[in-house]
Write a structure and sequence with these properties.
Elements: H1 2-12, E1 27-33, E2 37-46, E3 49-59, H2 69-83, H3 85-88, E4 92-97, H4 101-105, H5 113-122, E5 126-131, H6 138-143, H7 178-189, H8 198-207, E6 211-214, E7 217-221, E8 227-230, H9 236-244, H10 254-263, E9 266-267, H11 271-280, H12 283-288, E10 310-316, E11 327-333, E12 339-344, H13 349-364, E13 369-372, H14 381-389, E14 393-396, H15 406-422, H16 430-442, H17 453-458
Parallel strand pairs: 1-4, 4-5, 8-9, 10-13, 13-14
Antiparallel strand pairs: 1-2, 2-3, 6-7, 7-8, 10-11, 11-12
Helix pairs in contact: 2-5, 9-10, 9-11, 10-11, 15-16
């Protein structure tokens, strides 16, 4: 048993071994025919030694068995070239056969119609026929004399016609608008659009520089220097849902919805039009509408400009009880627009102290200025002592016009707007939705910043689930 194993092992690593082709060398085909079968061998000669690439044979049907010897020998050649076509097209081929008449048959003009058809079939190949005695053509001769008694048909999972076949796939709907399809075709297959001449062609070739193809997607180099994936039409509704209606989206208007899609790394030509249409059909947004902006006062500019140097704080509420919570304490950084919030059952100084000791100080450091209204939860000895101990200046907004602490009021309004649209019909689970509302706010595009609070603070775009 062990001896048989070593014998098989040695046979697998010693000549003759089937080897891959070398496309720089000519191919050699050995053929032979018997009364009932044809055989063929494909190989290449390296250092005067033949290396086999492929063995093939097949039995003849009843009609073919009645062919003359010359016809059978030519049939063996035709069978070999049909079987090995994917290797032989475009290459020099030397055919070895023991039937010398085949050399002259290829140039004969008055042959039988069947032979003429086969000769025409061989015209696409660069072949040369050489004589080879049957005793020297042993492998092909053996293949042509093999008998298979088992009539069970072979299940060929890779038919010959599928080898190196090129399939044209119809994707149905275009990847993008017409320009996107033209760009994809050009970048993927160097196929220039038909009918593009003169200035039209120059413009196309100039615009195509902004795109590149990375299988299986088309990307565009946008004006902000970021490469974004071009989106197919069927993907657009899902992306808009994630960027507008999901828990981390916030139901913002068109511009901020598009900004989230761009932040997620997507682009398509009709982004603003599609986003506007999607937002206008959002049932939640149409029912809630915009929070009123009446009685707003002009916002005052803050001179300190370092991130996390100036924080504004304010309470929101009371709201319907949610897990025992009635109020939200909001803190916003005036420079980055970064927002922190705590849900609480009360609106007293203890909650304010918790916000600064547990959130602001350990995460963002000690600010220079804190801005608040004149409520007792902010104006008290405990809070004042803590701010003085840390060297923080406390500024109080005008009592008759709390809108003068404009950034906090704006943040309150946006967070309240998000919660109204995500907290359900009863509005009693707003405390559970508060973290998602903060996520949506931090990743929303802010026009004064030209980016999102998250990007400004961390120096990178937030990775959203839609990506």
């Amino acid at each position: 048993m062990l001896e048989a194993f070593h014998t098989i092992k040695g046979a697998l690593v010693s000549a003759p071994i089937v080897q891959p082709p070398d496309w720089n060398l000519p191919f050699e085909v050995m053929t032979d025919a018997s009364d009932y079968a044809v055989g063929a061998v494909l190989g290449q000669r390296k250092e005067k030694k033949l290396h086999v690439i492929y063995y093939a044979s097949r039995t003849l049907d009843e009609a073919q068995c009645k062919y003359a010897t010359t016809e059978k020998e030519l049939l063996a050649v035709v069978f070999a070239f049909e079987k090995f076509r994917s290797y032989l097209v475009g290459s020099k081929v030397i055919v070895h056969t023991d039937h010398a008449a085949l050399k002259y048959l290829l140039t004969k003009k008055d042959a039988k119609p069947r032979l003429l058809r086969w000769i025409l079939l061989l015209q696409e190949f660069d072949l040369e026929i050489k004589d080879k005695k049957g005793i020297d053509n042993g492998v092909a001769d053996h293949l042509s004399r093999m008998k298979i008694d088992d009539d069970v048909p072979l299940d060929d999972s890779l038919p010959d016609e599928h080898v190196y076949a090129v399939e044209v796939i119809d994707y149905g709907e275009p990847l993008l608008a017409d320009d996107g399809v033209r760009s994809t075709n050009y970048l993927a297959a160097e196929h220039e659009p038909t009918g593009f001449v003169g200035n039209k062609k120059k413009k196309f070739l100039r615009d195509i520089r902004r795109y590149f193809w990375d299988e299986p997607y088309l990307y565009k180099h946008c004006t902000d220097g970021v490469y974004r994936r071009c989106v197919a039409d069927e993907e657009i509704p899902g992306i808009l849902f994630h960027c507008h209606s999901s828990s981390y989206a916030g139901h913002f208007a068109t511009y901020k919805t598009v900004s989230k899609a761009l932040q997620a790394g997507y682009w398509w030509p009709t982004m603003f039009r599609d986003a506007h249409r999607f937002v206008s059909k959002c049932d939640v947004c149409q029912r809630q509408g915009n929070i009123s902006k009446r009685n707003e006062m002009p916002q005052n500019f803050i001179l300190e400009v370092e991130v996390f140097d100036v924080w504004g704080v304010d309470f929101m509420g009371p709201f319907p009880s949610s897990y025992g919570n009635l109020y939200i304490l909001v803190a916003v950084d005036y420079v980055s627009k970064w927002v922190e919030a705590l849900a609480s059952p009360t609106n007293d100084a203890k909650v304010v102290m918790k916000m600064f000791k547990s959130v602001i100080f350990p995460r963002f450091g000690v600010p220079r200025v804190v801005i608040s209204d004149g409520g007792s939860h902010f104006i008290n000895r405990t809070f004042d002592n803590m701010l003085k101990r840390h060297g923080v200046k406390h500024k109080v907004a005008t009592p008759y016009h709390p809108q003068t602490s404009g950034q906090v009021e704006l943040s309150n309004r946006e967070i309240k707007n998000i919660l109204q649209k995500t907290a359900g019909t009863t509005g009693k689970d707003w405390a559970a939705k508060l973290d998602d509302a903060l996520w949506a706010y931090r990743t929303a595009y802010k026009t004064p910043l030209g980016t999102t609070p998250f990007n400004l603070v961390y120096g990178k775009a937030c990775h959203l689930p839609v990506e």
